[in-house]
Specification:
2 domains; 13 strands
Length: 380
Amino acid sequence: MEKMKIPFNKPFIVGKELYNISLAVIQNTHMSGNGPFGKSCQKWLEERLGCPKALLTHSCTAALEMSAILAGIGPGDEVIMPSFTFVSTANAFALRGGIPVFVDIRPDTLNLDENLIESALSKNTKAVVPVHYAGLACEMEPIMEIAGQLNLIVIEDAAQGLFSTHKEQYLGTIGHLGCLSFHETKNIISGEGGALLINDVEFIQRAEIIWEKGTDRSRFHRGEVDKYTWVDVGSSYLPSELVSAFLYSQMEEAERITKRRYEIFEKYFKLLSPLQEKGHARLPALNPRFIHNGHIFYLITGSEKERRKLISHLKDRGILAVFHFIPLHSSPAGKKFGLTRGTMKNTEDLSERLLRLPLFFEMTDEEIEYVAEAVLEFYQ
């Protein structure tokens, strides 16, 4: 097969993105946040996912930071989370003086091990943050049960999980709060972008205030107050209307995008299944009770050395494959701001062996076959 050049990710336009941006400027004459397209995106999320309130943010990081404020995290408060996650998961709480408490992941799904939560609890525990890795759901039932018994707040980091489900309920809508990402590497994109899903209605009013720089501006626009003023802490968490205009076009095609991502995942799985059958490498663990969104396709290689060789092998063939998170508990900031409870055997082992293959909406069947053939060639 002739040599191809295949990036790890490729941003894409699927419909009326550029038209919507021009419409926002020329017809709607609105470029700042919370304009017509922003409101349409939020309505779409509320109706499509079934959550009481959705607020667009300029990133999933911003949604996590809002969650930390809403959860009342302050100095010394502990927040249980996996170490195998992006830095924003921990940063959001460290910024409030909270202490990220890192626990190990499950060896199958690479998600927070729900069986380790109770042993990580202390009198200072205030919240739990399950991270749905690769768009495959954490075991939310025991997590919600523990949280309910101890009055803990559950904040779902569903950055990778749009349209994935846990027993027919969308990820991000199960905990008290949920955080989504629309970064250009995600399934539905706007360059940078995110959303806070508010599932506990008691948080809605304060969330709007925090979102609007600590003012009651949203109430003013609804005619509930005759002027708006500074009433709480907050920041500028809104995305611009241009970002929202781009995003809304993607939302209109969300099911088609997700369907294609899932098809690419399934094709990879079928082509590379001989590796797992022969014990050469492990493929993603699937759970028939949960539906994933085809966000990431990864391999678990035999060792870190083997992963490095495979990355080099693929690079020689024009394919960019990458590893993922460096465990937070082992990072300089993780050691400074966080605590580790229990062993990190799975986190340390799997993070060194995981390799992500290219997967993007416009990827062709020929490109998928080329990547799979290159991987199989390495193991032959």
